[in-house]
Amino acid sequence: MTLHIVGDLQGCYQEFQDLLEVLAFDDSDDELWVAGDIVNRGPGSLECLRSVYQRRDRIKIILGNHDLHLLAVAHGHGRLKKNDTLAPILDAPDCAELIEWLRRQPLMRVDRAHDVAMVHAGLLSSWSVTKAEGLAREVEEVLGGDQVDAFLSQMYGNTPSRFTDTLTGMDRIRAIVNVMTRMRFIDEDGTLDFAAKEGLSSAPDGFKPWFQFPRTVDDLPIAFGHWAALEGRTPESAIRCWALDTGCVWRGTLTALTLPDATLTSVPSRQ
Questions:
Q1: What is the dihedral of CA 232, 2, 59, 5, to 10 degrees?
Q2: CA–CA distance from 51 to each of 38, 58, 59, 92, 168 (Å)?
Q3: Which pLDDT belongs to residue 68?
Q4: Is 169 exposed, middle or buried (0-12, 13-18, 19+ CB in 10 A)?
Q5: What's the mean per-residue pLDDT of the chain?
Q6: 2-268 is classed CATH 3.60.21.10
Q7: Do residues 3 and 34 make contact, with C-beta atoms less than 8 angstroms apart?
Q8: Where is the Calcineurin-like phosphoesterase domain (predicted)?
Q9: Sequence spans of domains, the chain
Q10: Residue 9's closest CA among 264, 253, 232, 265?
């Protein structure tokens, strides 16, 4: 089986269709993963969400920070921002069905047959993939269960800025979510910086991109999105990884990694 992993869609529906055509994606034989941020900023957020939902048997997603923002707004625990393109989803007749499905999606996926883990932003170097899967399940149980509103009402925030195993309650869930969906720069202790969002030159003193810290616990390659300013590059990386958010919504490209051959395919933005 061929596995395609696509970077952030962010409402770029037409480009998503272009990429599926170029890949000659075959629902009967291939599988396709999307590295989070299915929605927001681009003009086709509703169409993107409907597309992955309607083909959910062969197209698998994980949650990114924009997807979580949609969940919070839909549950009444957040407000639309100036540049959000989420209103068509919230106004759609199938909104409740889409939101109910979305909140039950995972934070990461692992395919050991293809030797890859996918997460939206990244993983701390101290986390094995197995540990990260367990932490992701903690969040998934909250989002998919009765505590969903309790968490979404407390989801926004930068504290605690460092995950520790002693964290409990919603602080623990928020810290896991921030690592997996918002992380860019960290220091040697695994403390996250939330202010710097541009390229590598914007790193604060004492901080480096998370992928420049070696993983001593395992070496499973990681496919991630979230960081469009990298433009698909991970210079001085200490791990095996692919940066797949190539800024389609910012007039860049939409990119897919195809395994097992590890080829990259991109289509230009129509934005």
A1: -10
A2: 10, 11, 9, 14, 36
A3: 98
A4: exposed
A5: 97
A6: yes
A7: no
A8: 1-154
A9: 2-268
A10: 253
In 163-249, which ranges are E strands?
185-186, 192-193, 208-209, 222-224, 241-243
With tokens 């925030």, the residue in question is 157
Token pair listed for 39: 């929605």
Residues 6+ apart with CB under 8 A from 217: 125, 126, 127, 128, 131
Q: Are 62 and 108 in contact (CB under 8 A)?
A: yes
Name the phi and psi angles at 175, rounded to 5: -65, -40
Q: Is the overall model pTM greater than 0.70, yes or no?
A: yes
Alpha-carbon distance of 126 to 105, in angstroms, equals 25
Q: What is the pLDDT of residue 29?
A: 87
CB count, 10 Å around CB of 109? 20
pLDDT at 80 over 90: yes
pLDDT of 216 above 90:
no
Q: Name 268's bridge partners.
A: 253
**What does the DSSP assignment read for 77-111?**
SS---TT---HHHHHSTTHHHHHHHHTTS-SEEEE
For the chain, first and last CA: distance in Å? 32
Neighbours of 214 (CB within 10 A): 11
Place of tokens 């994980």: 62
Rounded to 10 degrees, the C-alpha dihedral 237/241/246/249 comes to -120
Tokens standing for residue 166: 């002693």
How many CA atoms are closer than 13 Å to the CA of 221, on its beta-carbon side?
A: 17
Residue-wise pLDDT for 2-28, tens only, equals 999 999 999 999 999 999 999 999 888
C-alpha dihedral over 87, 92, 95, 97, to 10 degrees? Answer: -160
